[in-house]
Amino acid sequence: MLAFTGSRLDRADNDRADPERLAGYMNWRARLLALDGLMPGMDQAGALAWGTLADAPEDAELVFLGLDGGKPCFACVPAAGDAAPRLANPAVWQAMASLTPDDLAIYGGARSIVDWHARHRFCAQCGGTTRIAKGGWQRECNQCAASHFPRTDPVAIMLVEYDGRLMLGRGKGWPEGRFSALAGFVEPGESIEEGVAREVLEESGVKVRDVTYIASQPWPFPSQLMIGCHGYADDDALVVDETELAEIRWFTREEVAASLAGDGPFAAPPAQAIAHHLLTWWRDR
Amino acid sequence: MLAFTGSRLDRADNDRADPERLAGYMNWRARLLALDGLMPGMDQAGALAWGTLADAPEDAELVFLGLDGGKPCFACVPAAGDAAPRLANPAVWQAMASLTPDDLAIYGGARSIVDWHARHRFCAQCGGTTRIAKGGWQRECNQCAASHFPRTDPVAIMLVEYDGRLMLGRGKGWPEGRFSALAGFVEPGESIEEGVAREVLEESGVKVRDVTYIASQPWPFPSQLMIGCHGYADDDALVVDETELAEIRWFTREEVAASLAGDGPFAAPPAQAIAHHLLTWWRDR
Predict the structure, then answer these.
(1) What is the mean pLDDT of residues B197-225?
(2) Of B104, B122, B148, which marks where a domain is finished?
(3) Domain shared by B62 and B178, yes or no
(4) Rounded to whole angstroms, what are the CA distances from B166 to A95, B160, B250, B268?
(5) Is the pLDDT of residue B264 over 70?
(6) pLDDT-based confidence at residue B102 (cuts at 50, 70, 90)
(7) Which of A204, B102, B114, B123 is most exposed by smallest CB count within 10 Å?
(8) Are residues B55 and B176 in the same domain?
(9) Could you tell me if B114 and B211 lie in one domain?
(10) How far from A256 is each of A58, A167, A196, A249, CA to CA, in Å?
(11) Which domain holds residue B210?
(12) Cα-atom radius of gyration of chain A, to the nearest Å?
C-alpha cells in the first residue's frame, strides 16, 4: 500500500455541511490530533498522540477529520502554515518513519488541510478576512461572501521507457547519485496524458507516447495528488532542461532492481514516495 | 478525442520563467485571444478570433498561452471572473458547439487561467494585493512576497457496475430523465481510488472495489481535472444522498447504448463531457 493512503477515518462528508450534527460531534468524546505547528505529536509508543477539545485554544479553528470508530476526530489550525510548503523537512521524515501506515495517512490528510487553512486566512478575490466553514472543508469571506475550498494539486510523475531502459532524473540541488522519476504539475487545459508528454518533452527533450496510468498517492507537502504514469519514448537522445535538472540518465532493469535493493548505481527514492512504488512496479513487470 | 484536449499551442514552459524571452514575445507578431469577459470572441467562420496586443488595455494583465507555429499567443485577464464558476452557462455551450476541437482546447485552457487571475487579485495568506508573474503562470504578493499558482482541482468521475448494469445519477435540480456518472472532488489525504470509493459510498451507499482508471479531461468551469474511473459494486441496494442527488438508477448495456443514440430511457450527457466518453467506453467494452 502506498504511504499516506489507507486512513481508517470515515470522513462523514455529509455531516460536515450539517451544522447541528457537526456541533453534536464537538463533545467530550471528541479527539483532538496533537500537533506542534504542523509536526505530529507522538505518544511514547511512536503512535499519533490525541487529546481532547479542551486542549485547543478558545478561539481555535477546528477541522473535522472524520469519525474513528464513531469517535469524532478534529485538528486545530496552527498559527502559521508551512513556509516552504513544497518541501518535506528532515524532522518530518523522521517522525514519518515511526508512524504506522494508518497513522501516517491520518497525519498526512490532517497536515494538508490545516496547512491550507493557515495559509488562506484572507479572500483571494477581495482581500477580506475569511472564516472556517463546514467543519474545515470550506472557508467563507466575511466581506464578499466568496467560498473557498481546500486545494489539491494534481502532479504527474512518470516512468519513461526506451528499449528496456528507464529515464530517471536528478533534480538541481539533489545529492550526487540520487535519481527519481520526472514529475510536474498538470496545468489548466491539459489531460493527465498531455501533462506527462509536456513535462517529459520540456525536461528531457524526449517525445513520449502510449501513456498509461499506474497508481496515485496523496502527498501532504503541502497537498499534491501524485498521479503515477508510464510511457514509451521513440528515441533516447536527451536535451536536459538545466533550469530544473542536474542530469538525466537511462537505467537498465538490472540497475533499477539493484538500486532498489540498495546496491545499485543510484540512490532510489524513499519507500514513502510513489516513485519508489513505480520503480518496483517496473522492475517486476 | 476528448473535448478541451489536443491544443496545438506549445506552452514553452521554460520561456515563462525567462523575463527577457517573455518580453521578446510581446512583439508585433503576437496574437491576443479575443474574449468578451470570459466568453470567446468568434470570427465569421465560427473560429476563435484573435487580435494583436494593441487591442489590450494599457494596464492589462497578459497571460502567455504559448506558441502557435512560432507566434506568441496571449490572453487578457478580464475585469471579473466567473461569478458561478462551477457551472457552465448556455451561451458558452452554444459557442463551444461551433468551435473546432483544437480551438475549444485553446479556449478552455485560456478561460481557466484568466478566470483564476481575475479571482485571485489578493493574497490568501496576508490579504495584500498581488501582481501577475511568469507570463501569467504565477502571482506574487506585493506585501508578503508569497507566490501563488493557478489552481487545477482533481475530480473523480466514475462508472460503477453491478451484474452488467451501470449506476447513474440525476443531480438535484437536473431535468427529469437526465442521468450521468457520479463525481466528486478528490480531497487532501486520499488517492484517486479512495476518492472514488468515498464518493460512491457517500452518494449511493454502495461499496465499490477494483477501481481502474480510464481517461482524463480538463474541464474549464472553472478548472477541474476530470479523472474518469470504473469500479465494481458487490450489491445494488441504494441509499441515495438526497442532499446531492434527485435519484440513482441502474441501467443495462442496452439502455445505455440506446440512450447514447438518443433513443433510450435517459438523456445522456453531452458529447463534450467525459461522462459521455465513459459511457461510450462501457457500451463498447
Answers:
(1) 97
(2) B148
(3) no
(4) 44, 6, 5, 13
(5) yes
(6) very high
(7) B102
(8) no
(9) no
(10) 53, 11, 21, 12
(11) 153-283
(12) 21
pLDDT band, very low/low/confident/very high, at B87 (cuts 50, 70, 90): low
Q: How far is CA B230 from the centre of its chain?
A: 20
CA-nearest residue to B222 within chain A is A188
Which residues in chain B (187-206) have CB-CB distances under 8 A to chain A?
187-194, 198, 202
Kindly determine whether residue A124 and residue B129, on different chains, have CB atoms separated by under 8 Å. Answer: no
| Residue at B180 is within a domain | yes
Residue B7 lies in a domain: no
Q: Are residues B265 and B234 in the same domain?
A: yes
The neighbour count for residue B130, using CB atoms within 10 Å, is 24
Angle between helices A253-260 and A274-284 (to 10 degrees): 130
Strand positions, DSSP E, A82-207: 130-133, 138-141, 147-148, 153-162, 165-171, 182-185
The predicted pLDDT at position B1 comes to: 86
* B186 and B118 share one domain: no
| Residue A199: closest CA among A237, A157, A140 | A157
Report d(CA B281, CA B285) in Å as an integer.
6
∠ CA B191-A231-B14, rounded to 5°: 85
* Domain presence at residue A3: no
Q: Which amino acid is at B271?
A: A
Domain count of the fold of chain B: 2
Return the pLDDT at B18.
94
Task: Give the burial class of B250: count Cβ atoms within 10 A of its Cβ; 0-12 exposed, 13-18 middle, 19 or more buried.
Answer: middle
| Domain final residue, candidates B91, B117, B148 | B148
Q: Average of pLDDT values for A258-263?
A: 97
- Rounded to the nearest 10 degrees, how much is the dihedral formed by the CA atoms of B262, B265, B270, B276? -100
Strand partners, A129: A122
Task: Tell me: ipTM over 0.95.
Answer: yes
> Which cell numbers hold the place of A33?
490530533
Residue contact B243–A17, C-beta within 8 A: yes
Q: Who contacts A166 (Cβ-Cβ below 8 Å, separation ≥6)?
A: A159, A160, A250, A251, A252, A253, A256, A279, A282
Overall size of chain B counted in residues: 285
Could you tell me if B36 and B131 lie in one domain? yes
**Is residue B21 within 8 angstroms of chain A, CB to CB?**
no
Cα B215 from Cα A191, distance rounded (Å): 8
C-alpha cell read off for A160: 519513461
Residue B37 CB: number of other CB atoms within 10 A?
12
C-alpha–C-alpha distance, residues A231 and A250, integer Å: 14
pLDDT in the model for residue A87: 63
C-alpha cell at B54: 494593441
Which residues of chain A make contact with B103, given a CB cutoff of 8 A?
A: none
- Beta pairing, strands A71-76 & A31-33: parallel
3-state secondary structure of A175: coil
Whether residue B150 lies within 8 A of chain A, CB to CB, comes out as yes
Tens-digit pLDDT profile for residues A30-67: 999 999 999 999 999 889 999 999 999 999 999 999 99
